[in-house]
Amino acid sequence: MLKKVETSPLLSVRNLRIEFPTRRGTLVAVDDISFDIAPGEILGVVGESGAGKSLTGAAIIGLLEPPGRIAQGEITLEGQRIDNLPYEEIRRIRGRRIGAIFQDPLTSLNPLYSVSRQLVETIQTHLPLNDKEARARALELLDEVGIPGAGERIDHYPHQFSGGMRQRVVIALALCAEPRLIIADEPTTALDVSIQAQIITLLKRLCHDHGTAVMLVTHDMGVIAEAADRVAVMYSGRIAEIGPVQEVVRAAKHPYTHGLMGSIPHIGHHVDQLTQIEGSMPRLQEIPPGCPFNPRCEEATDRCRVERPNLQSVNATEVACHLFDKAGA
Amino acid sequence: MFAFIIRRLLQSVLVMLTVALIAFGLFRFVGDPINNLVGQDTTLQDREKLRETLGLNDSFIVQFGRYVINTAKGDFGYSYMHRRPVKDMLVERMPATLELSIISVLMALFIGVPMGVYTGLHRNGLLAKIFMSMSLIGISLPTFLIGIMLILLFGVMLRWLPTFGRGEVVALGTWTTGLLTVSGLKALIMPSITLALFQMTLIMRLVRSEMLEVLRTDYIKFARARGLSNRAVNFGHALKNTLVPVITITGLQLGSVIAFAIITESVFQWPGMGKMFIEAVADVDIPVMAAYLCLIALFFVVINLVVDLLYYAVDPRLRIDQGAGGGHG
Ligand SMILES: Nc1ncnc2c1ncn2[C@@H]1O[C@H](COP(=O)(O)OP(=O)(O)O)[C@@H](O)[C@H]1O
Ligand SMILES: [Mg+2]
Asked: Relative to the CA of B185, which of A222, B72, B155, B298 has its CA 20 to 30 Å away?
């Protein structure tokens, strides 16, 4: 696994494995994944529902819910190991150094507190500002995320905002203390299609302005193509392919990535190549030996059913597929 | 908001009128009021004269109207048994019942809510499991049994606490209180625990299940992801969101506490309205029964109004006012 590391990564995940102990054995939900995020970079993470995207995000901010646990691996942020910190220390990192935006922005705000209260509370948790200063900052943030008439609306309650506006408030909350990294878990899935693009554009612009890196989880390849610098394709808790977005989208290598491309119409493949993937991702209890994708893969060989493929470099990307094994391996 | 209060007030008046009708019905259909007032040897003419002066020959509507007006003025007539105004008896008995009920509800709230929060937060902890098992006892044992067991243990065997009565009371105007003397406070301990136990376990279990529900919501996850302290998340964001159902149940329970007090008062020979009511039933003392009925109904109605107003205070979504509704794309 050679990697061209020009700057030291902001976030580095190494051999992460997430398990759920159950009565009938241990379920491995995320299996030995590694990736880096550079400062200011947007890393898209795609994959079907259940691929382990959200769990990876939760592990990074220390919010895995028991019985889920990190069984192996290391997570480092700016050189500091953060996966084994005491609760209070990782809590102080959340919001301050790593912000998060969750799956459903519509329900992410406490309905009983006004927007100003939630903003001020978060700001004061991380920054030494008094009430007046914190409120001024809250107002600035609302302005910045494009809430019209922020001065009037700041004391409104979440239910008084539309979905798109609430999502902007959520982004403002995530940006409160200028974190270096934001984990955005399907930030637009719950929104109207017409608003999705606005929100992605906003997120992209803000992160560019503030130099914030983003781990952008989505199952929408269109969003990835639009916003991400690099993309990681996940399948059954593993990374199938990871590389620069242009290369992955234009020249997908893993058969699974090929299949995913079926979801975006504007790429330069022949139509007959965009066959829909048959079947569905195996449940955790039923992940087959070898390559987890082999039962659905049209190009699977006997080897794929036995031997697990590891990530290997092919051009600028890395792909976990035996099709790319060097001759004689 | 204003229209809502008016509507609720009208509904309350309707409820009270219905209850008054039932209470009034007691007079008409349970026994003959004249028989209850005079002795065996009263002549028919005298009875007829009394009937005329008491207005018992007037039409139903006139009699009912008179009853409602008198009741509203606090004039509940004369007790058949004690030959004195029911109003005086109520004034005498009410402080005992109200002190017992209010102390019980406060006890149930201030012990039940923290225990509910605790068991919700540490749902697998040993202490939480002990609380939960104990709460089953509180829920399933009948009130009188708990009272009798307490009397047996602390009154008869250990001789720590008095087994009956209110102890010494101090008169503050017409209000007699047992809260200012040592013997009064000691006498209050067992009855209030007996009365509080059921409500306490109910509130605890309710807060617990609401907490479990709320802790799973996205806004709690997002609050944690913003790095807010556990204290702010658990006791601010989470607890406040459990309040609406807790207010409802506590409000309803306050009413039933006053009703349950009948049993507790009988067990502990507590000189309150409940005991007075039981005696009145035994003696077929209709005016006392009717007065008790109306008074309890009044408590329920007032409590319900207060509960509705508290909703407004807690939940901004109910405060629908101008500028609140409508979409804001
Ligand atoms: N508490 C849990 N117990 C067992 N399995 C779980 C639990 N939470 C998540 N999983 C499993 O982990 C896998 C990955 O979940 P997740 O990260 O949420 O997927 P996604 O890529 O859709 O975000 C899924 O197969 C899911 O069933
Ligand atoms: Mg997910």
From this structure: B298
